[in-house]
Structure formats: C-alpha cells, structure tokens
Amino acid sequence: MTSTTAFYPIGTSGVPWGQTEKQEWLSRQVRHRSYADEVLARIERLRGRFDVEEYGRLDYADGMYPLCAIRNPDWRDDLPMALVTGGVHGYETSGVHGALQFVEQHGADYDGRANLLVAPCVSPWAYERILRWNPGAIDPNRSFRGNSPAGESAALLGLVAPLLGRFVLHIDLHETTDSDETEFRPALAARDGKPFEPGEIPDGFYLVDDSENPQPEFQQAIIAAVEQVTHIAPADARGEIIGSPVVAPGVIRYPLKSLGLCAGITGARYTTTTEVYPDSPRATPAQCNDAQVAAVRAAIGYALAH
C-alpha cells in the first residue's frame, strides 16, 4: 500500500518503487502533443534532400513509435563523421526542434566535408508526454550501456555500433528546466527511495564536457557561438552549476561513459551535452532552438578545423 510522501505523491518515503508504484506513475501520464505531426512530418519533408532511415521501433502498450535518423547524401568513407542527437529526454523540446532546424537550414552545408548522422528524437513516447523517463520509469540518459534496459537507448546504440571508431564529434542536445526541480528530481528521489534535496536551476545555457576526455577549447568555441544567441548560465554562489564545479564559463564536466550518458556512446574526440534554459524570462522558444543550432554548427566547425 502506497502513501503520499512530503515530496512526491507516489510511494513510501525511503522505499524504492516496485512495479505497483511504477504502474501508478505510468497511469498518471497524459499525451500532450503528437510525435507524428510535430517530428515525423518534418522528417518526411526532408526526404529527397537527405537520406532518412528507420533505425528502430518502440512498441508500447499505447502506441508504436518509429525511430528515425537523417543522413546527408553521398557519404564517403574518407570524410569525418559527426553525430547529433536530440530528445533523449522527450520533454526537452529545443533538443528535438533544434536538431531538425539544424538539418533543415544547414545540413547541406557539410556535403563533401563531413558525414552527418542526426537522430532528432530519441525518446518519442516521452516527447508526447513531456517526460524525462520512458514508460518503465527508466531514464534513457542513464542507460547507454550494454544490455540497456531502455529500448530508446538500445536502439541508438545499435545505430552507431557499425560506425564506432569513425566519429570525430557527438553533440547531444538537452535542456535544463524548472520542472527538473519541481517534478523530475523529486520523482527520481521517490523512485529510488532516497531523500529529495532541493537544488538550484541555472538561468542560461551551459555545456557538459567529458571529465574522462576534457576538451576545453572545443567547449569554449561552442560557448562563444551560443552567447551571440542567448545568455550563458553563471555559476552559483558555490561556484557550481547543478552541483558540479564550473571549470570554465558555462562549462561543467561529467564522466559521460561511466554514467551511461548519450554523449559517451561514440568514443569521439569531441563530445558535449548542451543545456538550454527555456524557462528563462530572457529566452524565447525560438532563441532556444537557435542556440541549439548555433551550438551544433560551432561544434562541427571546430571539429573539422582541428
């Protein structure tokens, strides 16, 4: 029997969720938007200019979701390869639409210069429900490892597996939102039976570098491009952003691969995770998409030049 806790309405404080609690959580989720209309339709319009492939299909109780990737045409084995991913967390809207906008506006710029592989919406079920997790209450962005429990993560790993060793760049597009603090972090604490410790949401754009392969000049090239579009998140009073030390303006570091994060899947020399703040009074949805596009362009430009 579950009871309401002080910080989340599902489960018993201090006790990790079982299947009953996960089913209760799932029963509360509501579809708010259409992956077919908002994402697949845009991808379909790219056919002819780009190669589109279905790299997997998620078959959930309330629907089936094709997973699509976009490639620029005429791939060549002698060209460097760049991976762009968005929507690993489905609620992080500018990751999805920023990736699509990049392809629509700039994908053709790299013909003959780089092989582009873009997976704009890794988690379509969560995109529709504006959620962080998949239906099993699993975070895909902690699940990029062998025998992944998340179908979203397993499918993307399968897409890149034949290409490992060829990537020079992977940029994974994310957002940090106010709902991280009001919903998703409390839910995580409740699911895992841990106390919820309130944090602070940074106001602005920042990047997550790889602590196991830091590339500070690469990260700063992206920051320099993005600050022409939107503001960069400052460090808090402790010199941190979301609990991690700020190592350069707008940059923190995580061990990407060991945490099972998407940006750690390729072994590329240049990797980063973008974090846009869409709830800022200083940023519009269009600015958030534009910031993601600026980040991708700067990342690819730097990788190709170095």
Automatic annotation (TrEMBL):
List, separated by semicolons, the cofactors it needs.
Zn(2+)
Q: Name one GO biological process term.
A: proteolysis
This protein's UniProt keywords: Carboxypeptidase, Hydrolase, Metal-binding, Protease, Zinc
* GO MF terms held by the record: hydrolase activity, acting on ester bonds; metallocarboxypeptidase activity; zinc ion binding
Domain (Peptidase M14) spans 31-306
Q: Which residues form the signal peptide?
A: none
Please indicate which superkingdom the organism of origin belongs to.
Bacteria
Q: Which family does it belong to?
A: Belongs to the peptidase M14 family.
Q: This protein is called what?
A: M14 family metallocarboxypeptidase
